[in-house]
Structures
1.
Amino acid sequence: MTVISPQSSESSPDASVLQESLTVIETKRVRKPSFNVPITPLVTIKASRPWSPLDLRFLWSHRELLYFLIWRDVKVRYKQTLLGATWAIIQPLIMMIIFTFFLSKVARLPTEGVPSPLFYYAGFALWTFFSNAVLSGANSLIGNTNLITKIYVPRLIIPSAAVLAGLIDFAIASLLFVPMIFYFDLGLTWSILFLLPLSIILTTLALGAGILFSALNTKYRDVRYALPFLLQVWMFMSPIMYPSSIVPRQWRWVFSLNPLTGIIESYRSSLFGLPLHHLSLAYSILFTAVLLSVAAYTFRRMEKSFAEVI
Amino acid sequence: MRPIIKVVDLCKQYPLVTRTQSALRYDTLRESMVNGVRTSFKRLIGNGYGAKERLWALKDVSFEVMPGEVLGVIGPNGAGKSTLLQILSRIIEPSSGYAELYGRVGSLLEIGTGFHPDLSGRENVYLNGAILGMSRKEINSRFDEIVAFAEVERFLETAVKRYSSGMYVRLAFAVAAHLNPDILIVDEVLAVGDSDFQKKCFDKMEEVIKGGRTILLVTHSMPLIAQLCENAILLKGGQVQKVGPAEDVVNHYYSISDASVAL
């Protein structure tokens, strides 16, 4: 065991040190700037009730930490890579090339009159963001154990930062739309302005899923193994590599239960100036709001035992 | 004068997983599968263990700390020292009882929390500072001081995974040492670096104490307790054995155990 000695000469830890220290203590008692103790405690620590609400003010006071964690994730992601942030474009681009060739050229799937590369790129840019965001959100708590067991920060910030960090990649990937839209000579319409609120809805949906799974993941590591499969199934059930118009009419309602359907369809509609599906979008918004509330509540309930079960 | 920390009847109990519940008992595959399903079902609906046996990590712990006081927390392994600090740092919740804190708390249960190996020294100072609760403005204003204290000026732009372990802990300690809370909770993190740097850490600690900060210090080093603390609290088996002037409590601790070996 290493022992710090005040002066290098007295490192022997016997009774003489204790004697010495008495005099030190005496001198210590005299001077000290006084601290004004407030009447009410800043913090009262006790067992929390299950229904305690989220402390939004406390979260807000840590917004800088949220920024720093996002910044860390973004910085670290492409460290020691040659291509750096170009990877954010390459991933959906390669998917686009594969699917344009196999689904459009070989299987001749329709793409609603949109040039097929654009159709697939839009789908995969969005899906890459969503699945990466949910996955890294879900693994954020178990990947940052020290932030949970060694210090107290508002834990909700950790999965939130992991999800939001994906937005940078999404923005970079979306840049490719500009040359593509010009290349395919697709006129831009005002509806492109809808992309912003749609991205917010999509991000909120990812936040809800990321927060919920991150909390469950601390206790049940099954999430870690099940989630990649769940996401894969989710991808096939979403109109990413096919338009929802090819889904048989009697199954359309099941298909619309997927909250991503409305978002992806509307996303393409506003990019390519197609008509919007108001009803399915409204459903997606409602689902997103409910999911986020459930996630926040679950997180709040499980949060107090994170440090013990993780 | 009123206390800055008030701890009242603090209890923390943990469920104990006993052998009967562990998989060791099952002998056939069928039985173990049935039991596996049964226990995982129990876990889903119950408190996660379904255990009857409990461990009291802390039991009815009460004490008060005055502003500017430096309180040492001592006791053998498993006495509940870390549990106490974790509760006061809000990392875990008590089972019952409460604690009131009348000032901003900074807790150092570990140095370098959140350090990322791929980030540079400069980046990690900001990240770690933010995690410890400093604002960006505070970090900016103390940045040069932190770097000078850690003596890593030349390596600021180097990824910390390329640091020597000495440089790493120096930087981590430097950030922590420049945290400026009303109440500082410290767990055994002072003894870092070579002897020169340890001396520096110790001086910094004294400076912090002179600044009127309230400090809760857990350590196994009795000379350190005697040097830095006015009062101490002795925990054993989750209960307070003795509170009082540091030297009395340290002597009492020696008398109930042969802890002098631990020095």
2.
Amino acid sequence: MKFLEYKAKEIFARYGIPIPRGAIASRPDGIVDPPLPCMVKAQVLVGGRGKAGGIKPAETLDEARSVAGQILGMDIHGYRVKEVYLEERLDIGRELYLSLTIDRSAREPLLMASAKGGIDIEEVPREQIYMEHIPAVVGIQPYVLRSLLKQLALPKEVGEQFASVVRNAYDLFRKEDAELVEINPLVGTKDGRVVAGDAKLVIDDSAEYRHAEYANLDQDRTPLEQEAHDKGITFIQLEGDIGVIANGAGLTMATLDILSLKGGRGGTFLDLGGTDDPAKVKQAFELLIKANPSVILLNIFGGITKADTVALGVKQALEEMHTKIPVVARIKGVNEAQAKEMLRSIGTYPAETVEEAAELAVKVKSGGA
Amino acid sequence: MIEFGTKVVAGVTPGKGGTMVEGVPVFDSVREAVHRRRANASIIFVPAPYAKDAAIEAIEGGLKLVVIITERIPFHDCLDVMPYARSRGCTVIGPNCPGLASPGQAKMGIMPNQLFKEGDAGVISRSGTLTYEIVNAMTEAGFGQTTCIGIGGDPIIGTSMVDALAMFEKDRKTKRIVVVGEIGGTAEEEAAEFIKRRVTKPVVAYVAGRTAPPGKRMGHAGAIIQGNRGTAESKVKAFAAAGVPVAEYPSEVPRLLGAA
């Protein structure tokens, strides 16, 4: 789950991380009492909004409304701006950096901090970034903060506040099941405060069940992807026109790759997973058909989920939906013969291998089969 | 698993102690199962919200090999479990994996039995059904397996690709190794580096997700290109630089094994 800046900041505030005063608005006339002078910031789930013109200053209420009017509805890297956040303009003394992520290789949280904030951390020289793994079972010990502050060489008052932000951010990271907490810049103001200038927060989707309060947040999904998510189906819309459905994430990715090698382009990534429940298979096909592919390419490798029970679900779904979309089916594994017979009986194009199925799908699409 | 030859000595389900399933006694706790039936490994199927509890119980029960099949376990639960397992000398495989199978010996997993054949190839994979596809092609082409390890599709896993490579390098029966990777993370790049320095046996690879768009989780929690990190291109390049042939199609793996 990704969070818009203002939503992330709400959560930051709950954990005692200082944030600037701010107000959210979805219409210019909804702006009543912004903290002036302010920055008007587009709220989108994508980076680089400043460079794209999504962050602008305003001095007065009228100006705030007019600037908000310009930013609302803007398209930033394919994301439409539906809300703006009007935030107290900080008197910036210094810009710092802080993030917590999960290091997959080390299997531990990774703390990164730098006295050089406000720019992409990838552009900061490695020796100017403090990096420390924090074993989850022990958490942040005081020595970590001591060595962090020593390396960053901050004035005492700033350092103390920085340390407190690190502790609180780590607390949030663990308790909220975050994959990413990033504050860039973490602003040291001229009047001596340390405040989160920006806020990036991503929470692990697998932990959604522990955080029901975030279930209805607007996510980075197309309407069909949202529908699939609500039904518990793994479905991603892609650029191409051939609807790919398979069982298992790796196999579905491989099927898309093979299709591309054979000159086709996948329009969907639909992973049936381990299901052979005909009702679920039908739901998956309904979604697929709504995505309006020119051909459907079905690739099933049956194991514990038997090939014939998946085929039965496919048969029922296609029969009930009376779709005209041609289906190329490759089905292998446990009870393969029955599965093939079932799919043949409903007029799908049979294929023995994935390569053959991909070639056939491309041919059927161009009317050559 | 029993059909494959695995000695399943006990089941554990809290509240079901005293019952029998397929002639196997069920206990309320891991400790009882270990004490009464001398179990030395465990396979976990419990739902994600309870998987951390089950894993810690298995580790605390003194088991030295724990396979976690369950998918969608929160990352932070795995951040607790994996280092803890290591500190207790326990090897964890998974989570979000099909388990492991050693044809002719035993299986702790959910892979279909009929795919496998005894042989001299070790298989390491981040995937489930894609592994079946590749193992099936290998078996049909006459390349049997010593062991097939599904290491799992999550970002935080107990046994990494490098860990598994080290085990196969050491195993005297394994003469060749197949690595099935996918987009996301840097496991394949680390594996390639390890192969260059430490692996003497021929390795063949396949990488899924060459056409995957950035920023999207492709079914597996770990299969995501973040910024310019975790692309198939980078992984294929790393393998090539380590002298590991990478199959374009899963069905090419046996041919590359023959040539390797």
